[in-house]
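Translate structure to sequence.
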């Protein structure tokens, strides 16, 4: 796993990679005939870091990402990621933190903690999307169990679009024990559960809290659920009974943001 390499694409994701972990960048390709302010900022940052860049045509970028150009310059693979004129070949580096880091982080905060707990989220795309939302919502750390969770890998980093370099991902040995330790610190544990009688919008979410989201199929495990102080549900008006975990995470986190900003 330590030798894994892949392409990170897009201005925001590559910029965060250069700012946070420039040592991971092996190659940096820029579209030669594209000039705009944001891409110029990537060029300037690379120059400041002493990184060599490769100026290539758009077709070469898309070919490197798995698409072969056809007439008109459009790739045959319409599902190629949007590269915005920049791609970076990087090596995989696990930036996952441990429980000791979490304890130091909580002791250093000067505001009520906001934590996101993901109970056995095994899809790296969902983990990446949750990290991206967590970054946008100002989450202090994302906590996952060491076992039966998606690892921090290049798929997660690509989906997170730069958030994986900014959000602290903490893997813990025993999630139930960690939740108990958070409660002892005065942090309230709120779990999202479709069958909960209390609505998300009825809860007071302004204090120190950890939001727990369950796995894609089974939801929270029994012991995780038992450690929650409150169970909350998202009101559903249509025929769909549940939301994708990353979508549900966004709904819940931004209700916290709304209440705290108010």
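Result:
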């Amino acid at each position: 796993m330590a030798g894994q390499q892949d392409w990170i694409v897009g201005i925001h994701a590559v910029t965060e990679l250069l700012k946070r972990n420039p040592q991971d960048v092996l190659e940096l390709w820029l579209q030669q005939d594209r000039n705009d302010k944001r891409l110029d900022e990537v060029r300037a940052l690379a120059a400041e870091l002493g990184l060599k860049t490769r100026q290539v045509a758009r077709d070469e970028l898309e070919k490197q990402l798995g698409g072969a150009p056809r007439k008109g310059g459009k790739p045959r693979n319409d599902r190629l990621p949007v590269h915005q004129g920049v791609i970076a070949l990087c090596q995989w580096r696990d930036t996952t933190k441990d429980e000791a880091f979490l304890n130091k982080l909580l002791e250093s905060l000067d505001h009520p903690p906001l934590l996101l707990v993901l109970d056995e989220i095994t899809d790296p795309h969902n983990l990446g999307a949750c990290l991206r939302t967590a970054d946008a919502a100002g989450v202090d750390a994302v906590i996952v169990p060491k076992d039966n969770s998606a690892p921090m890998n290049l798929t997660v980093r690509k989906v997170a679009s730069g958030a994986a370099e900014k959000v602290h991902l903490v893997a813990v040995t025993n999630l139930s024990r960690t939740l108990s330790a958070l409660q002892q610190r005065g942090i309230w544990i709120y779990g999202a559960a479709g069958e909960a009688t209390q609505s998300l919008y009825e809860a007071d979410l302004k204090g120190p809290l950890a939001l727990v989201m369950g796995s894609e199929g089974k939801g929270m495990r029994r012991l995780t659920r038992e450690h929650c102080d409150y169970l909350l549900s998202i009101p559903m008006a249509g025929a769909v009974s549940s939301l994708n975990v990353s979508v549900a995470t966004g709904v819940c986190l931004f209700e916290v943001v709304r209440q705290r900003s108010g």
